[in-house]
Amino acid sequence: MGQFQLYFQLGIQHILDIKGFDHILFVVALCAIYVTRDWKKILILVTAFTIGHSITLALATLKLVKVNSDWIEFLIPVTIAVTAVSNIFSPKPSSGRGIQINYVFALFFGLIHGLGFSNYLRSLLGKEASIFQPLLAFNLGLEVGQLVIVTITVVVAGLLVGIVGVNRKDWALVISSIVLGMAIMMMIDTKFW
């Protein structure tokens, strides 16, 4: 197996690892207010998040940025909670400016999540001569893993809202409330306190 493929698979596995479900929760929260027909908006949103975490993942892996990991472990569930609360107060995607704000939030929160990945990736890279290819492969793997989560979330939403007849607003409120509760528990469990 080549180096690129190895790091690509590690990126996918890292996102889809149920033990590290914080990232899964965040992506579910990002997608909770969308349904299948919103796929372009979702793709832009997830890509904005990926760009954010790719930037800080690269900077932290190259040791250009160093942040206390206890802060990051606390801030990651905060980003999940803020996203869920935003969904609760605005359970439908708004047109125009509201969507742009969601993109900015996704990009900014991606910066925080990238710092959380950096220790993991740095330990994997060890003493690699060049980190560009492994970093690119890992980020692409993360993106593919996120798209798997997005697809599952949107398909379930599409089935429940489009076929079963669950109210779209109710779906967003229930999913966002569950995610918010889990994020609060994660914040309480951090070493930050």
Structure description:
α2 (22-31) packs parallel to α4 (69-89), α2 (22-31) crosses α6 (132-164) and α4 (69-89) packs antiparallel against α5 (97-125). The protein is mostly helical and 193 residues long. The model has no long low-confidence stretch (mean pLDDT 87). It has helices spanning 3-16, 22-31, 39-61, 69-89, 97-125, 132-164, 168-189. The termini are far apart. 79% of the residues lie in helices and 0% in strands. It has one domain. The chain has 7 helices and no strands. The longest helix has 33 residues, at 132-164.
Relevant terms:
193 residues; mainly alpha; 79% helix; 0% strand
Task: Show the helix and strand layout.
Blueprint: H1 3-16, H2 22-31, H3 39-61, H4 69-89, H5 97-125, H6 132-164, H7 168-189
- Estimated radius of gyration: 17 Å
Number of helices: 7
Mean pLDDT: 87
Category from helices, strands and their pairing: mainly alpha
Characterize the overall form.
globular
Termini Cα gap: 43 Å
Largest sheet: none
Number of structural units classed as domains: 1
Beta strand count: 0
Low-confidence stretches: none
Strand content: under 5%
Order of helices and strands: HHHHHHH
Protein name: HupE/UreJ family protein
Organism: Aquiflexum gelatinilyticum
Transmembrane segments: 20-36, 43-65, 71-89, 101-121, 144-164, 171-188
Keywords: Membrane, Transmembrane, Transmembrane helix
